[in-house]
Amino acid sequence: MAHFAKIEDGIVRQVVVINNEVLLEDGIEKESLGAKFCAELFGGVWVQCSYNANFRAKYPGSGDIYDAELDIFKSPGGN
Description:
Blueprint: E1 2-8, E2 11-18, E3 24-25, E4 28-29, H1 31-42, E5 45-49, E6 65-67, E7 72-74
Antiparallel strand pairs: 1-2, 1-5, 3-4, 6-7
């Protein structure tokens, strides 16, 4: 399963889980397809995240910060 976070003004507002098949194009996973899928369903801007924190520093929760410059999620206190 793939996880995506809805970002508004740099803040995580929601995290959803979608089927990995949504990300596939010619057998290759593409984050942009998942982000587009989420935007079409729920509106807004979506960024893929990792439940195991394998990328983007941590698994985000509602209220966490997405630092677009560093392309990571952070806790509001900076951790």
